[in-house]
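Entries read sequence, tokenised fold; example below:

***
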Amino acid sequence: MTPPVTARDIELAANAIRGHVVRTPLVPAPRLSAQFGCEVRLKLENLHITGSFKDRGACYKLQQLKAQDARGVVAASAGNHAQGVAWHAGKLGIPATIVMPQATPFSKVERTEAYGAVVVLHGESVAEAQDRAHEIAERDGVTFVPPYDDPHVIAGQGTCGREVLEDWPDVDCVIAPIGGGGLLAGMALWLKAHRPQIRIFGVQTTGCPSMRAAIRGEPQPTLYTLTLADGIAVKRPGKLTTPILAQHCEDIALVDDAAIEHAVQTLAAQQKTVVEGAGAVPLAALAQDPARFQGLKVCLVLSGGNIDRRMLSTVLLRGLARDGKVARLHIEIQDLPGVLSRVTRLIGDSGADIIDIDHQRTFSRLPPRCAELSVILETRGQQHVETILQTLQREGFPARAT
């Protein structure tokens, strides 16, 4: 049976979208390489205009529809696919409607509308939004643009693999996220056609391993989409993408939210690169099993950077707390004049910076003439925190860190 997408289709897609989509860089990551014992390079798909690889497939698909004089398009998405379709439809002059779940963050709705699309909020999930999008397509005579299960979309995403091989001809393996499978399916087709010995690995979350179950012929487990990597929390893997990945993907690793969070923190701290949860899962998979990749040339595909600023702030602050760079101390004091200033002076003299302080008398189990301080500090790390605690305790102030 003729496959729905071939390497030739990806070549055509690359020629068509050239100049309309950012050619993203493949950059070395020497600190990660030293840490994991392999040569690591990062494919920065977070640098597209709309912040993710979805620009590729959306651009190529909409070019085909423009050539067919499509009356308009409709898509369903809570994020990256919505923005990719909206941006390229606007550039091509095609009216676009995007159906998004009602709980979609306003920032994502606002960005999608800013690209010129009409946004319709419907349903509690992307699946319900997709059903509504199909209704709109039938009612208005416009074309539904799938997020991954479409030959032109897969071919467009496959151009990412073409660029990887152009920039790193002797790469040994590629690790990329899997949601519906469009990105890695397209990449795999190109990579395997031009470098058959390359090893291809996908990554999903432990809560939503839908593609892995489909490829292994296992019953679909209960799937959970509430994850930091919401961009790949896809319950229904593609009918076109599943057999492609079953043929070409060596394995699909599963990573949990703690590993994903740490990967986002690491990329921000070491590489000065902001990625969303889905974009960080390749690094999480590498960190989870570094022995598997020892001595190899490893490309990590950072698929997108559209992380909510509030969530990014939370993740980074939690990382600082985990490293001891931000610490919270609970300190018992006698509730007498001058004691508070003495405690703050001890902390300041230790070289820490007080960010916030709360003086608690009422909600405390301490005696009435005592109080508890909750102090948030910026420090040099865990050892510095221990030194501060020892100083406070030596001066008669019971203290502990939480």
